[in-house]
Write a structure and sequence with these properties.
This protein is about 50% helix and about 10% strand. It has about 210 residues and is α/β, with parallel strands linked by helices. Helix 4 links the parallel strand 4 and strand 5.
Length: about 210
C-alpha cells in the first residue's frame, strides 16, 4: 500500500482529503505544520507528499526544499488557494511534481497522483538499470595492471565528471567501447543515453549527415 503525507493547516481539508485518498486504498499520514510534516516525512518516508504552500510556521516552499534536501527523489504535489504564477514557477524549480489550486478538483488530483507514481516507478527502474550498468562497467572489470593501464584508469576518473568531448583511439579489439562505457556509467550523467554507432557500416558520404543531421 502506497503512503501519502498531507501537510495542511486547515483541519477540514486534511479530513476530507484524507477520507478521499483512504477510499483509494492509500495509507494516509497528516500534519498541520511544516515542522510536523518534516518530522513525519523523516520518520515515515511516504511515497508522495501533498503540501500546502501557506503554512503557519515554515513557508511551504521552504518545507518543499527541506524535504528535497532529505530525499531529492521525493514526489511532492503543491496545493494553494492562491493562483500565483511566480510561486508556481518557484515550486516547480524547487522540485515539485505538480501545482494544484484550491478548491481541489479531485478528478484532477487523482490523475496527478497516478502520474506522479508512474513517473516515480520509471525513475526507480532507470536508477536500477544505471546501478547495474555501473557494476558492469566498473573500472575493476577492465583487465590490466601495467603502468600504461594505470594511466588509463586515472584518465577515466579525471574525465568522468566533465562534459568534455573525448576521442578514444586504439586498434580494433583493444577495448575502446569498454573504456567509453566506463567513463559514461561512472559519470554524473549516467542516466542519459549511451548510443553506439558502427561508423564502418555507414558510407563516407552519409556519415556526417547520420551523426549531425542534414
Amino acid at each position: 500500500m502506497k503512503s501519502i503525507l498531507i501537510i495542511d493547516d486547515d483541519p477540514l481539508i486534511r479530513k476530507t482529503l484524507s477520507a478521499h485518498l483512504a477510499a483509494k486504498n492509500y495509507e494516509i499520514i497528516s500534519a498541520e505544520t511544516g515542522e510536523e510534516g518534516l518530522g513525519k516525512f523523516q520518520d515515515s518516508s511516504p511515497d508522495l507528499v501533498i503540501l500546502d504552500i501557506r503554512l503557519p510556521d515554515i513557508d511551504g516552499l521552504e518545507t518543499l526544499k527541506s524535504i528535497k534536501s532529505q530525499n531529492e527523489n521525493a514526489s511532492i504535489i503543491i496545493m494553494t488557494a492562491y493562483d500565483d504564477m511566480k510561486t508556481t514557477i518557484e515550486a516547480i524549480k524547487s522540485g515539485a511534481f505538480e501545482y494544484l489550486v484550491k478548491p481541489l478538483d479531485y478528478i484532477e488530483l487523482d490523475i496527478t497522483i497516478e502520474k506522479a507514481f508512474q513517473v516515480k516507478n520509471l525513475e526507480d527502474k532507470l536508477h536500477f538499470i544505471v546501478e547495474e550498468k555501473q557494476k558492469e562497467y566498473t573500472i575493476d572489470n577492465i583487465i590490466g595492471h601495467s603502468p600504461p593501464m594505470r594511466e588509463v584508469f586515472k584518465m577515466i576518473g579525471s574525465v568522468a565528471n566533465t562534459r568534455t568531448n573525448i576521442l578514444i583511439e586504439g586498434e580494433s579489439g583493444t577495448g575502446k567501447e569498454l573504456v567509453a562505457k566506463a567513463i559514461h556509467y561512472n559519470s554524473p550523467f549516467n542516466s542519459e543515453p549511451f548510443i553506439v554507432i558502427n561508423c564502418s557500416a555507414i558510407s563516407d558520404t552519409l556519415l556526417e549527415s547520420e551523426l549531425f543531421g542534414h
